[in-house]
Amino acid sequence: PAKSEPFILDLRLTIAELLNTKFGKYLSDHPFFALVLLVFGVIASVPIGLFLVFAVVTFVAVTVFFVFVESKLGV
């Protein structure tokens, strides 16, 4: 627990700095809009995450195929 305390403290300072900005004060005054923005951000990140997973899996599959199949051909 002692190692995570500086991270939590730093995160709290970052959140406090955000809430002290003009945008942060607006979100504090309009909690429904803040919730909508949060939900939209989470939902919008799902397709991006799926695409990145697809790209990594494809890259790994092609690399493994190339290493094993091409090495058996003796090229």
Automatic annotation (TrEMBL):
<feature type="transmembrane region" description="Helical">
    <location>
        <begin position="36"/>
        <end position="69"/>
    </location>
</feature>
<dbReference type="Pfam" id="PF16015">
    <property type="entry name" value="Promethin"/>
</dbReference>
<keyword id="KW-0256">Endoplasmic reticulum</keyword>
<dbReference type="GO" id="GO:0005789">
    <property type="term" value="C:endoplasmic reticulum membrane"/>
</dbReference>
<keyword id="KW-1133">Transmembrane helix</keyword>
<keyword id="KW-0472">Membrane</keyword>
<dbReference type="InterPro" id="IPR029709">
    <property type="entry name" value="LDAF1"/>
</dbReference>
<dbReference type="GO" id="GO:0005811">
    <property type="term" value="C:lipid droplet"/>
</dbReference>
<comment type="similarity">
    <text>Belongs to the LDAF1 family.</text>
</comment>
<protein>
    <recommendedName>
        <fullName>Transmembrane protein 159</fullName>
    </recommendedName>
</protein>
<keyword id="KW-0812">Transmembrane</keyword>
<keyword id="KW-0551">Lipid droplet</keyword>
